[in-house]
Amino acid sequence: MSGLEFRDVAKSFGAVKALRGVSFDVQAGEAHALVGENGAGKSTLMKILAGITRPDAGAVLWDGVTLDLPTPRHALDRGIGMVYQETVLFPNLTVTGNIFAGREHVGALGRLRKPEMRARTQSLLAELGLSLSPDVEVESLNAAERQLLQIARALAFECRLLILDEPTTCLTDAESAELFTILDRLKAGGLTLVYVSHKLHEVFRLCDRITVLRDGQHVTTRPKAELTPRDVVRSMVGRDLETRTRSAQALAALESETPLLAVDGLTRRPFFEDVSLTVRPGEIVGLFGLVGSGRSELAETLFGLHAADAGRVTLGGVPFQAASALEAVRAGLALVPEDRQRQGLFFNLDVGQNLAMTRELAARRSRIDGRGEAASGQSLVADFRIKAAGLEAPPDSLSGGNQQKVLIARWLSTAPKLLILDEPTKGVDVGAKYEIHERVRQEAAQKRACLLISSDLPEVLALADRIVVMREGRVRGVLGGDEANEESVMRLATAVAH
Description:
- The chain is α/β, with parallel strands linked by helices.
- The protein contains 18 helices and 20 strands.
- It folds into three domains: 3-237, P-loop containing nucleotide triphosphate hydrolases (Rossmann fold), CATH 3.40.50; 248-332 and 416-494, Rossmann fold, CATH 3.40.50; 348-414, no CATH class.
- Strands 6-7-8-3-9-10 form a six-stranded mixed beta sheet, sandwiched between helices. Strands 16-17-18-13-19-20 form a six-stranded mixed beta sheet, with helices on both faces. A four-stranded antiparallel beta sheet has the order 2-1-4-5, covered by helices on one side.
- β4 and β5 (65-66) form a beta hairpin.
- α4 (114-128) packs across α5 (143-155) and α13 (351-362) packs across α14 (370-383).
- The two termini are 48 Å apart.
């Protein structure tokens, strides 16, 4: 059979069965989506294909020939390249240096063939439509250019099959559109694409067929034309996910509440200026804006990570200005940060210690009650449906969705008055996203004030009672009820008529 085939591929990590006899094919020259919840086995299967991990059983065939891929170099030599969610590049090297790192062209006496490598780099950049100099250092490139450079690096190996693992996580919509245009062109030229993503609109935009994995098993492989996004979600999670919205009566009751948080003219130059907003107990206020609008910087300032230049904040009617994150926590604030890898979890601690950390700080304890925290940790793991081998497991052994649940559980365990969520479902699958949305609704139902920051407009529209729209560091409007829709929000966020 022409193309790629997985035959009964199995892989276990200790007692965890990551793959349970997975079989399906990828036709040569197609864009093939691989989707599933975090922990479904997608990454493990792609690591096997890329030569990073060895299967315990089964086989991978390419054009009918069984592949033996003990290392990533063997995969590259067979024309299989991979573009990772987190860019794997050397920032202090040039574009040319990165493309040929580890496989430099060498002439007599071990001298580098620099002109030859530079010319090849120029050709690859032209093929991708990138107007970059081969001599520029990678640290000066933006996120989209770095992702495209990873593709150029794979193509330099005469790649015939390209794996893309969540390549748009750090890209803007415009950068993602540019990437898709290039992928369309590469596919038209005969390149086979395997696309791993939680973003179903991207899957339906790019891919010809869709394979769904669930709990390490193959569920279905079908042409895109035979499926709807709802069908795919049902296959991924094994059930329909129903969303709930507040009634008009509930919204009217919210409006009578006195604001818990009131921000008046808050300024921190050059990030935001003269920002005013309110959040009532039980209300979910969405804070929407494009990259650079000042949303995250505002959240960090409210949480005491930075000092404001001007303005006034009251919490529960009392003037409030946290001089540190610790002060903010003890005043009843919680911040789930945008980047769980760098700002959220402690990867040198286990899951149980991560869950206990903020609760101990909020309680002003000098020592951790090991027995009590173990019981609390087990309760949180069960309550938030966190899939982990145990409280002693390291966070990096968990899927992205389960890492995010640990982070949210940790903060909610402090019983905050105000919950600030910055991109709470970034990089998680649809099942975990649904559970997080339901948790936010539950917290609001318990009179928790919630400030939701997200660049996912459908998420904001689905969750928020009111939407505060920021652009270039200023609030450009507040929308609620029927007036809040994609067109009205984007008009304020971009200042462009739609």
